[in-house]
Every structure is written in C-alpha cells, then in structure tokens.
Amino acid sequence: MYSKTLKPGILFGPYPEKQLPSESSLDTAILQGVRKVTALPWLQHYRAKKFATSVEIFGELLANELPIELMRRLKRLREELCLHGASDGADEQVLVEAFAVVRELSGRILNMRHYHNQIMGGWLILNGMLAEMATGEGKTLTAALPASIAALAGTPVHVLTTNDYLACRDAEQLSPLYAVLGLTVGSVTGEMEDPAVRRAGYACDITYTTNKQVGFDYLRDRTRTGSSSRLSRIISAAMPEYSEPVLRGMCFGIVDEADSVLIDEARTPLKLSRQVANSPPEEFYTAVLSLADNLLIDKDYTVSAGRVDLTAKGKKLLKESCEKNSGLLTRRRNREESVRLALSAKHLYKRDEHYLVADGKVHIIDPNTGRRMAGRTWERGLHQLIETREGLDVSPFTETIGKISYQQLFSRYLSMGAMSGTASQVKGELLAIYRLPVVCVPCNQPLQRNNYGGKVFKTHEEKLLGIVESVKEIHATGRPVLIGTRTVSASEELSALLDEAGFSHRVLNARQDADEAEVVGQAGQVGSITIATNMAGRGTDISLGAGVAELGGLHVIVSEHNDVYRLDRQLIGRCARQGDPGSYQIFLCWDYQIVMSDNVRIQEVLLNINNIAAFCCVRLAQYWQELHQRRLRKRLTNSDQSLAVGLSFSGSG
Prior knowledge:
Low-confidence stretches: 1-12, 238-242, 594-603, 647-653
Number of domains: 3
CATH topology of the largest domain: Rossmann fold
Largest sheet: 7 strands, parallel
Distance between the termini: 24 Å
Strand content: 5-15%
Strand order of the largest sheet: 3-4-2-5-12-1-13
Structural class: alpha/beta
Mean pLDDT: 83
C-alpha cells in the first residue's frame, strides 16, 4: 500500500488504477465542452509563471546552504509531501520549497540548474497538464522535477518515452540526482525478458520505460489475473496460485513526446499474442503467394488508398484455381482473405521502408521513429507471407489473447502529465480523449533558427543531386550537416551518392541503431555530415562542437516530407537549440507520393507552379492525411466505448 496519493481519489490495493466511468455519447459531448471551457491555458500559464518565480526566489536562499542542511530540509519536506500529497492536497509553499531543493541539488550534482521555463513545465506536468516546450528546451531535466516530487510523496512514477535508447539514456543521466534525493531509479526495455528483472525495474521509485513496454506488461498482468477489476485483483492476490504481477499499478505517468505516444501511435491497439499449436505449413503460404502472383492488377484486384480489394472476376478465378485443392484454400473466406493479404504484402509493404530484414528475420520499422519494433509482428498471416516472399524461415502463426488501445491504457493512470515540442496541432484531441490541457511554455532564450527556403525539383534524381550540391556548399564552411530521410532505403541511396562525391559521413537508421549514441554525439562537430531517418527526429540532443556556433551552427536538410507535419517540425528542431544558431532547408520533388496525383493533367499543372504554391500543396496533403488518421483514432475510441457499454452488465470491462 502506498503512503499517500498524488491526487484525491486514488484507489489503494495491490494494483491501483483508475476505474473508467461508463459515459453515454451525450455525457461525453457535454464533458468535452466543459473541459474546453474550464481548461483556460492562459490561466494555467499565469499560475505556472507565478509559481516558477516563487521557486527562483526561494532558491536564492538555498544557494549558500551546506549539504547537511539541505539534507535535513529534504527529510522534512518528504514527510510533509507524504502527509499531504504532491499536488491538490499539498500546501503551495511546501511545493515551492520542494521544487527549489530539487533544483538546487540538480545544479550541484548534475551541474544543470532548472531554468524558469523548466520550472513552469514541471509544475504543469505535476498538475496533470501537457507542457508544450520547444525542441531543445530540456524536457528530460524538466521531467525530473515532477517525477522527484511525486516519488518523494510515495507515489510510484513511470516516465514514458518513445524508445528504449531514450529511456536508458535519461535514467542514467539523472540517476545521480535521484540517488542524492534518496530515490531509486530503474529502466525497463524490450531486451529484458525475465519477468523478475522487469518487476525489479518497476519496483523502483521512478521507472523510465516506453509506452509499449508498459502496455504489454499491463496486458500480461491482466491476462494472468483474468480481469482488470480491482475486486478481482484483491481476490486473486489472496489465492495460493496467484502469480505476482510485473507492474505495481498505474499511479503517476509522465509522457515524453506525448503527441507521438498518445496520437501518432494510438491508431493501432497493442495486442498480446501467443503461438498457435496447429499453424499452417510453409507450403500454404507459398501456395497463397503463387495464387496472388497469377492475378492481374486492375483486372482481378485493385490497389487504392492503401487497400487491396479483389474484383468479382478475381474471386471467380481464385475459386476455379482452388477447386482441386484441399485444406484451407477450399474455404472461400480463408482463400480470399489470404490472397488479399499476399497482395498487400506485394504492393503495400516495402522492404527497407516498412520492414527490415536482418539476422534472418523480418523486423517491423516504426514509421514515426524510424526504429525497429522489437518483438512486434503483423497478424492474420501477413508477417508469415512477407517472410516467405523474402525467402526466410516462417515464424509460427499467432493468435491474439489480449488487446488494449492507447486511449484505454493511459486513461488507467490515476494521474498523468505530459510534455512535447509539437502538441498544439492536436490539443483538442488530447483534451477530449486524455483530459490533458495543452499549455505553451516560452523558450528560455530567443530562437536563432534561419530558414534557407525550399527548393522544388521535378524528379527524385534531380532532388538528390540538389541535396549533394547543397551539402557541398555548407560543408565548405565547416558547419555540420544533418540530412533527414523517411526510410532506410532513402538514407542508403543518399549515402551512396555522397560516397561518389567523396564526402565522409555517418548513417543512422534502423540497420545501424546500435551506434546511435556515437553517431548523435559526433553529429554536431565541425565538418561532420550525418544522414538519419526519423530516429534523429525526437529526443536526440545534438551538442555543437567547439567553434561550431561561430560558424553558424548545425544545418538541417529535410529531404522528404513526412505524412504528418509535426514530424517535419521535430527534425527541424534538431538545430538552433537553447539560443544556439542554426538553419534548415527543405527539398521537394513532385514524384513524392504524398502530393503526386495519378491524373496526367494534374501532374502537368503541379510541375509548373511556383515554390510557394508547391509547399502549400504539400501542407494541404499533410492536412488531409492528418484528418484521415484522426478519423481512424476516433473510430477506435468509439469502438472501445461501444464495447464497454455492451459488456457493462458483467461489471468493469
């Protein structure tokens, strides 16, 4: 049992979590309207600014205190926080003093004292809001404030980020501060397969991990106990056969890069699966691929809007081809679904863009981060079909035994705060779904980022040559260059051209992810050239080498637009951080899939418009893509709510 809560209403027990209320559609609409009215970001901004000023004033009194005096003060504050809680129940003066003590110790131990805007961000997160801070404003150090205060109050804290690398890096970087505060810190990554090791990581006062790790561990705990209801967990805990859960519950979550975690990745629910005993043989997948190869596009099947559909003629041809067969292909539904998946594997899933082949396995690439999704597979036989097409050993067929959406998962936290550099575009959705008001926090220093303008080319080849020429010009000045690409194949294609031009460079993508720390560490040095996928777009802090600021700082080249504009902003945000100078330039070609039309006349019009109109077309295409993704997330949320209402007769679902 935990000593005190972050907010009133936390449920005590072996597995504390929020019980989701069952709301009708009318209730939901009314509540969303009330939240928009009561969020009042300008008021929260004023309160956060006033609080940060008080912390800085109090911090001046601590500057000359001896370490032993600070430790006595810290012990007293811990008792106060455990008695009154860390937010709603806490006296504001206690919180001011606690923030000031953590800030002072951070300055002494880490040589990093929180700035005014970081204190504001910490207060907003602690009070259940999303602090939007520009890229490079030190969100890692900002999160240490609310994490420390909540942990000192006795509340287990999860700091959630987008990948294992960032989780380990942040935990290691801040561990000296937490040790002085008397707090334990751990990290949980995908490489930890032993449940005991993962349980030890979650047993720490502060745990750094990823959204996927928490999601799957929550599903495993639910599957193990058979239900998510609190009463069922208490009863199960009393039984001899009860298996101890990995998590300690869902108490206080701090979500880093919240728009990526809560929005971009929320289109697809997390699914826990297990191997099926009677998996289809490899010959079945070979036969299905053979059937798919015999079909003609636009005659037997169509491919449009990221979907494959069989025509009536194609279905008839499949039936005739499988009349003499036996087994799964004789069933119409299995036959047509399997062939449709095989056609999807052929047309919609591309090697080195959607997946990577390494160590004899197919690894899915996360489109938002550019990283491998360890342990993840496509379902319904799609993964096995891609393995067969690539000539690899076929992995066992799996079935889903547990599923949860991100909307459901993060709503289980008793209290949650967040931070991001690009959340304003989706603030309405964050407030409506996760009840997270978005409050913008100003930069610590004026921004010195220069836009070199965009360049538009007719073909992909011309664009690549233009990028090489731009690299040549910037490299001659000694400035470091970072080139962002969307896919592994695009990064390697550009790398080959730079090799031909005689430029020494480094590549960072899902194939070279083991060298990430070294590549990022050298990317800001004089004369360095780095090509990176979206792996370099979030969470990476590229420090400038000696003399680089005087040369003009880091120059970022955006070689490809992402489907979502926020990802472009993240890449651009790698330069000109914390008052340093920097610049960026965007390259565009009209054969890029996000803007290119199949209509020949439209192509001719697009190729003859000016640069400004060209980038307006790109932004419009991104807007429609964002709208489509928003609809998918809305559909998933509505499905969750309908299921909860339909199963309400059986209690908590």
